[in-house]
Write a structure and sequence with these properties.
Structural class: alpha/beta
Distance between the termini: 63 Å
Number of helices: 11
Shape: elongated
Number of strands: 17
Oligomer: single chain
Radius of gyration: 24 Å
Largest sheet: 7 strands, mixed
Helix content: 25-40%
Length: 366
Amino acid sequence: MNDFQAVADRVEIEALRGEFTDAVMMRDRPRLASLFTPDGALRMPNIPAEQVGREEIRAGGERLQSLWDFFVQNTHPGTILLDGDTATGRAYIQELARTLDGRQGLNYAVYHDRYQRTAEGWKFAERVYEVRYLDTSPLAGTAPHAAQGSGTNPADATATPAPAASFTDPATAERLERVAAALRAGGFAAEILDDAAAARARIKDLVPEGASVLTGASETLRLSGIDEDINASGQYDAIRPRVLAIDRATGADEIRRLVASPEFVVNSVAAATETGSLVLASGSGSQLPANAGGAAHAVWIIGAQKVVPDLSTALRRVEEHALPLENARAQAVYGMPSAVNRLLILNAEPRPGRGTVLLLREAIGY
């Protein structure tokens, strides 16, 4: 190899490492995955996470990204050792991050790299992430909301937040398929149905007559007729009518036990992400234990307008769209405002077969 070729190779590998950080910061996961060979690997033992192949790297990155409040990565030059069409090297990393559940910190890390020359240029054959220093002290700074971005398009990183009206638009068929695939990867059963009528019929297949069933306080269930089918037909051991008949002052413990562990819970959600998470919000939290795992089986019916790119957008949908509508309903029905006092985020189903998601092609509910 001549000196000119060696210089060119080093420049291209250094650019590859810079491209990696740019794709991370711009939340452009398809571009990030394209920087690896088809069988390339991204290994992060400290997280822990390991992704092999471009699709796993893309999907795994989107799942991690959905947890961020903000994330900043800087890459500093390291070593490059060339060996024909392969190379090894190290890149030095400084990162600041805060996740939506409050974890935060500053770290310094090393990427131990293997590179491969391909027809498309130099690619990562493997990146192994090693944290050398971690400080989890509270970070004093914040990220401007408009800089967080919500999609995988680089332009999203500087876009202003989507207006609330965008939370009413039904997702495209492609986006619904993406949600379904991500949910299945996380252990949920996921089906795409045409409309609420199809979901109403499917519930009768999924929930056997006589089963104890708790329904959530959901506009989707009410508008679809599913709430009436379960709570007023006499075909099921319906929990909600039983709860409403109990004196709240003397029967609080009985109510708590009834709603915590029914055989089935049937509900909707405030948002479903393209990275495979479901977000439920509640004022009292009473219905959340059954959804989280207390019920032996769970079915969630989700209108197409509830699909969002990631978790940060899902939380915005809760606050900016669902809460004002639920607040108006609560004022009219109960004479008091609503609030998001409890949030439940389901990122995966550890008991495969327990949770079924019915994604609708039509918009329904909040």
